[in-house]
Amino acid sequence: MSISMETRKFWILSCNTSRYDIHTLFNINGFCLWNQRRNFKVGDVVYIYESKPISKIVYKAVVEEINIRRNKPENIDNFYKRDYNKEYAFKLKYEATNPGNRLQFAELQEKFGISSMSLLRIPQLSSQEMIDFFDDVFSGKVENLPVPPTKEELYKPLDSGTILEHIKHKMDFCEIRDSHLAKQIGISSSSIARVRKGESIKSDCILTILDALGFGFVNSTDESYVYCATEITETIKQRIISSGIRTTELAALCGASPSVISHLKNDGSAPKFEIMEKLIKYFGFKVILKI
């Protein structure tokens, strides 16, 4: 059953909790006094938007009284964290708490065209559809938005997934089109489509894709330094030289021919990516998502 916008008005009131401790007021008193602005009437519904870092509609309240003079001791509100300079206040009675993750700023902006500037102007809910949606959210009738996986969940350590899997995860999660990435980095769409399917292409191309997607490498001996993906070939070359490991021994460990390792060691020619990934792992590197 929808609530008619003809009988009362519906507002969004933005609250900066660093200035006004509305959570404590509602928890202790069940109401709060607010500097009187706009033409609020008794019975109006006010949805309270908590500003950053929460950035979400958090409470539903109802205007219970208006034109309250603040010069009376019983009407002095001690929960302002900065001085207020309004003579009159109105009383908001707590009604409900947002039960989920809907009505965040991104949804308000996308669904209803509400901007950060308009929130400061105390906007009204502008349509019956908007009123009904807000009411349904607070009644628990609207499902929560899916929670995106954290970077720790999405980008597994290298030892539990391949580099090509990391690329696929990132492209799928961010909905990156093959054609868009191809245009950005100068690699054919068909090559990127192959990588997305888990097929190998030239090492230099895969490393370029990693770099464009924001991946890098760290070494187990010093995880504070992040290597760009496109510099990992030269880095591996220097590690081969400095380690003193014999070409034949390293080739056997990686399942490569000695000539492939020699080319990498002498002129920096990257081997096939299957071999490159084994070398990356052998020398203690792991792929990370650069933040």
How would you describe this structure to a colleague?
The protein has 13 helices and 8 strands. α7 (178-185) packs across α8 and α11 (247-254) packs across α12. A hairpin with a 5-residue loop joins β3 (45-50) and β4 (56-69). The protein has 2 domains: 10-138, Roll (ph1033 like fold), CATH 3.10.590.10; 151-289, no CATH class. Strands 1-3-4-5-2 form a 5-stranded mixed β-sheet, covered by helices on one side. Strands 7-6-8 form a 3-stranded antiparallel β-sheet. The protein is an alpha+beta fold and 291 residues long. The model has no long low-confidence stretch (mean pLDDT 87).
Overall geometry comes to elongated
Strand order of the largest sheet: 1-3-4-5-2
- End-to-end CA span: 46 Å
Report the β-strand fraction as a percent range. Answer: 15-25%
Tally of individual domains: 2
The tally of beta strands, per DSSP, is 8
**Percent helix among the residues?**
25-40%
Query: Which residue ranges are poorly predicted, with pLDDT under 50 across at least 5 consecutive positions?
Result: none
Rg is 29 Å
